Amino acid sequence: MFFQPSRISFDLPDWLEDFSKNYVSNPDLNKRMDFVIAASKRNVEQNTGGPFAAAVFEVNTGKLISLGVNLVTTQGMSILHAEIVALAIAQRKLGTYDLGKESAIPHELITSTEPCGMCLGAIPWSGVRHVATAARDEDARAVGFDEGAKPEDWIQSLTSRGVKVSTNIERESACSVLQRYIKNNGSIYNPEVS
């Protein structure tokens, strides 16, 4: 007999809320990235998901709106990349699907690794006005992750839609989390496609 769930939800790691409460608003982009990378490291240490984290902040003040970590393996849903989790939480918290409404405070997405193909598609629709990344696509691929198809000029694809992009922010620190994940035998959860 066919069964269709009437509700889909996911659980955040127990440590995430307390970790987020320790953040102090900071207008320094590098400090915000340090916080995001620390969350990706904690996700690996706590064995609560993959080596990726992302957060939504107010652009001008550095106020934290939401923090997301990769939950693909622990929640069993391929869409639960850190960026998607962070955007979903921010949208729910602020009560809007558009984080860039003209009357709203501009928001940014800070992520420990460049967006994969799926997350790249979600960014302009979310309404964020700035994206900052640490590790590069090739860093994630080098440890075995499939980042999906995305244009080589992905930065231009965002800037042409009004989204500023900053890359290589604290890259070495983010790469060390990817390496630690592999060293700890973390699961590389690429889909099996025949």
Instruction: Note the gap between the termini.
Output: 28 Å
CATH fold label:
Cytidine Deaminase, domain 2
Element pattern in H and E: HHEEHHEHEHHEH
Quick one: CATH class?
Answer: Alpha Beta
User: Structural class of the helix and strand makeup?
Assistant: alpha/beta
Gyration radius (Cα, Å) is 16 Å
Q: Can you tell me the overall shape?
A: globular
**Helical content band:** 25-40%
How is the largest sheet built, in terms of strand order?
2-1-3-4-5
Average residue pLDDT = 94
Strand content: 5-15%
Please count the helical segments: 8
* Overall strand count: 5
Q: What's the CATH H-level superfamily name?
A: Cytidine Deaminase, domain 2
Q: Please identify, by name, the CATH architecture.
A: 3-Layer(aba) Sandwich
Unreliable parts: none
Key terms for this structure?
single chain; 194 residues; alpha/beta; Cytidine Deaminase, domain 2; five-stranded mixed sheet; 8 helices; 39% helix; 14% strand; globular
Task: Give the gist of this structure.
The protein is an alpha/beta fold and 194 residues long.
Provide an overview of this structure:
This protein has 194 residues and is α/β, with parallel strands linked by helices. It has one domain: Cytidine Deaminase, domain 2, CATH 3.40.140.10. 39% of the residues lie in helices and 14% in strands. The protein has helices spanning 16-21, 29-45, 72-75, 82-94, 117-126, 137-142, 154-159, 171-183; strands spanning 53-58, 64-69, 107-113, 130-135, 164-166. Strands 2-1-3-4-5 form a five-stranded mixed β-sheet. Helix 5 links the parallel strand 3 and strand 4 (130-135). Helix 2 packs parallel to helix 8.
